[in-house]
Structure formats: C-alpha cells, structure tokens
Amino acid sequence: MDKKKMGFGSKTIHLGQEHDPRTGAHNSPIYQTSTFVLDNVDEAIRLNKDQELGYTYTRFRHPSEAELGKKVALLENGEAGIALASGLGAISTAIMTLVKGGDHIVAADVLYGCTLTFIDDILSDYGVELTLVDTTDYEAVKEAIQPNTKIVYLETPCNPILRITDIERISKIAHEHGAKVLVDSTFASPYIQNPLDLGADVVIHSATKYLSGHGNVVAGVIVGTEEFIRKVRMPHLQTLGAVISPFDAWLVMQGMKTLELRMERHCENGMKVAEYLNEHPAVEKVYYPGLPEHPQHELAKKQMNGFGGMISFDLKDGFEAGKALMNSVEMISLATSLGNVDSLIQHSPSMSHFDMTPEERAAVGINEGQVRLSVGVENVEDIIADLDASLAKMEEIIK
C-alpha cells in the first residue's frame, strides 16, 4: 500500500513510523539516551561526515527527532524535516542557516512578537538588515527586495490579526530575485495548508501548538529540501543546540495522531464562535478568515482547507475592556499559547505584543482592545456561553 496516497488522518498515524526492529514495539520507543555506541572508528568517521546516516550524539540527531521530522515533512510534502526544542528555536535556526552579516531580510510587518525581536533586535547586532512590509501589498514586497535579500519571511495566517498572504504569489516574486521564502504555518497546521506546494522553500511550525495539541510540550519543526535540512543540522543545530529531547519528540508524535480529528473540530468551532462574536454589540471587529467580510476571505478559501480555530477581535471599549474580559472568563483559560484542545484567550497588547508601543501596535492593526482567542475542541455551546457571560461581566466592570 502506498502510504503517501492515504487520507490525511491515516498519514498522521502511520507516516514516518518504523516499528522497533529489535522488539517489534507497536508504539515508537523513547530513546532516552545522551549518546550512542558505535561499532568502530570507521563508523564514527562515516557518521560525522553525514549525521543523517545514523546516530552519534543526541544533540546532533536521535531516533525520536528523526521520526518526528520525517513525519511532518511527509505531511507537508517536503523532502526532509528536522525537529527542534521550540518553535522559536526552529525559526531562529532556519533563518541563521540562510543569512550572514551584510545580508537582508524582507519580513511581514505583523509577526509573533518574539520572532520580530529576533530578526529586528538580535540579528541587527550581527549586521543583518531588515525591511518590514505588508505582505498582502505585493508591489511593496517587490520594492522592498534588495540585491542582498536572502529571505522573504511571513506568517499566514499571521499572529494576531489573521491576515492571509498569497504564498504562491510571494514565492514567484521572491524567486525572481533569488530570495528564499520561509513560511511560519503554525496557525494553519499541515491539515489546513501546505506552503511548499504553493512555492515556498521552507515551512516552519511551532509544534507546541496544533501539532501536539495538548499543551504539554514545547517544540518546533522545520521542513525543506534535503540539502537545506542537512545545513540546518550541521553545523547550525549542532552548534546552536536547540535540540528537542526524545520525550518531547515522542509527545508531539502522540498528539499528531489525532491532528485531523482535532483540526476538523477547531475549524467547526472557530466558525461558530466567529459568527457569534461578529454579532455581539461589545465587539467592534472580528478577524477570522472564514467570515465573508475578511479582506482575504476568497484567498483563504483557495489556499486553505478550512479556516482554523484562531480568532482575534477588537472590543469597542479598548484596553480596559480587554483587561476586564480577561479577568472574567471561567472555562476559557487566560494563557499565552494556542492550538490546544482547550480554549485559550489573551489580550494581545498586554501579552504577546507587550514589547511594542501603542503606536507601533496601531501601525500594524493591533487595537488596544484586541483579544486573541484560540478556540478549543470543547462543546461549542460551552465556549460561547463562557464568552457571553464574560462579555456581560466585562460591560458591568467598565461602566
């Protein structure tokens, strides 16, 4: 049976997994070891030349990491993948594999706050230049690219305003100028979109989020060509050290077995909650690609298989309303992460984008009353009931 022709749910269970040849263990073992015994010096030399051929030391490569990287690569229709200790570890390692001092990056002007800190504050200390641009303004992207541009970096959907970028169009623009396209697809997961199929060169996931789905692990994955993944591993992962532990890799793989089931429910619940919020009198605006009024709704229908479980919305009464709502939720958890089976909520200006000034946030569409909601897989009636009661309590607090 050609496993690559299986349905998505079957792929998440079976692709990449190899039963332990010694014991026949049904589930992948956890190889909880720091090092590996070699047969002879010739084997050590062979593996040190190419770590993809086997295992010498867990910081370089281990069976649990290799299986997870392979599984996500197959789901993304990529040649190879590598798992790392966090989503930001994946982002920073992928970028540092491609740039050096004097190079230039074009990046989306709306990104996860820590990603922006890395490419704007940290890389600039090493001589890497940056231009931020609205990646839905394709002429602006063209104008931003310079002779030394190595990367066009974006999130789609983006955090937190759920802007959708046309990956195929951006890839054509970047490739005409010799730049690579890196897409953070965390908000979508491989269930919803496959950026490599649309022309991107590298796809990155914070596996902490939808891939694992249970809020019990921090991890990241990079997928690209075999040549690129070799460069990521040696020397960048080897020396930067953002290696995922065997147990954490195993946890992500356990979560991935239900990815299709969870994403179906996230998408279903997300649409219903977005429609509810869209009609609520305390809500100024809802950001959700499944709503017809979303500016990239038609692109989302074309590029994505569903609209996901991430919603942002602006409260009419601003910052204080955002704080009041956060302090009023009961079943929904006030937490900074996303993609869990349980619903999580945050006030973006005081949490994920706290390091930006109000003026900087406003420039990229982050309202002071903006709330980000990661819709879980609970019964949607309970999610809406909690929001309804919390919004009513919020209105009482800010009177």
UniProtKB/TrEMBL annotation:
Cofactor (UniProt): pyridoxal 5'-phosphate
Annotated GO biological process: transsulfuration
Pfam family, one: Cys_Met_Meta_PP
A GO molecular-function descriptor: methionine gamma-lyase activity
Source domain of life: Bacteria
UniProt catalytic activity: L-homocysteine + H2O = 2-oxobutanoate + hydrogen sulfide + NH4(+) + H(+); L-methionine + H2O = methanethiol + 2-oxobutanoate + NH4(+)
Protein name: L-methionine gamma-lyase
